[in-house]
Automatic annotation (TrEMBL):
<feature type="domain" description="Pru">
    <location>
        <begin position="13"/>
        <end position="155"/>
    </location>
</feature>
<keyword id="KW-0647">Proteasome</keyword>
<keyword id="KW-0539">Nucleus</keyword>
<dbReference type="GO" id="GO:0070628">
    <property type="term" value="F:proteasome binding"/>
</dbReference>
<dbReference type="InterPro" id="IPR038633">
    <property type="entry name" value="Rpn13/ADRM1_Pru_sf"/>
</dbReference>
<dbReference type="InterPro" id="IPR006773">
    <property type="entry name" value="Rpn13/ADRM1"/>
</dbReference>
<dbReference type="GO" id="GO:0005737">
    <property type="term" value="C:cytoplasm"/>
</dbReference>
<dbReference type="GO" id="GO:0008541">
    <property type="term" value="C:proteasome regulatory particle, lid subcomplex"/>
</dbReference>
<dbReference type="GO" id="GO:0061133">
    <property type="term" value="F:endopeptidase activator activity"/>
</dbReference>
<keyword id="KW-0963">Cytoplasm</keyword>
<dbReference type="InterPro" id="IPR044868">
    <property type="entry name" value="Rpn13/ADRM1_Pru"/>
</dbReference>
<protein>
    <submittedName>
        <fullName>Related to 26S proteasome regulatory subunit RPN13</fullName>
    </submittedName>
</protein>
<dbReference type="GO" id="GO:0005634">
    <property type="term" value="C:nucleus"/>
</dbReference>
<dbReference type="Pfam" id="PF04683">
    <property type="entry name" value="Rpn13_ADRM1_Pru"/>
</dbReference>
Length: 156
């Protein structure tokens, strides 16, 4: 079980199936292929979608049980001069991927890629160890990416 720390320093347990991490959003220029982090911080929450019939039907077949959809939500954690909308998706196993942008040298940028070709870019907010380059992943980042990819593949 992991623990989330809120601004008020109150700790609350997070169920194993739920992921929360701090990330900002980025804009992407299709023409120049340049990713630009926006200076607003946020929180990504990934929560399993609860099947309404799940409690009623305990005899689900194995295929239905294996389909683990997740709600993906990015929410700004600070106010901005221009309003920033939440970003929400429902993730289907095998239909999405979370990939590091290796060409980014001044931070840790990622793309949430959909099978439809849609892309949403994010940057990780938590600082890495002081002896690492800005684009190098910490052990915590590596574990987070592993967990995110498990969610994307339906293994989490």
């Amino acid at each position: 079980m992991s623990v989330a720390v809120t601004k008020s320093s109150i700790t609350t347990p997070i169920p194993k199936q739920q992921l929360k991490f701090r990330a900002g959003i980025c804009s992407f220029d299709e023409e120049t292929k340049i990713i630009t982090p926006k200076p607003i911080k946020g929180l990504i929450t990934m929560i399993p979608v609860k099947n309404e019939d799940e409690e009623e039907d305990q005899n689900m077949d194995e295929e239905e049980e294996d389909l683990k959809m997740y709600n993906f939500k990015w929410t700004p954690t600070e106010k901005s001069v221009t309003p920033v909308e939440d970003i929400e998706y429902v993730l289907l196993p095998g239909e999405n991927s979370w990939q590091k942008i290796d060409s980014c040298t001044n931070g840790r940028c990622f793309v949430l890629l959909f099978s439809s070709g849609e892309k949403q870019f994010f940057w990780l907010q938590d600082k890495t160890d002081s002896n690492k380059k800005l684009n190098e992943l910490s052990d915590k980042d590596e574990k987070l990416i592993l967990d995110i990819n498990k969610v994307m593949s339906g293994e989490y």
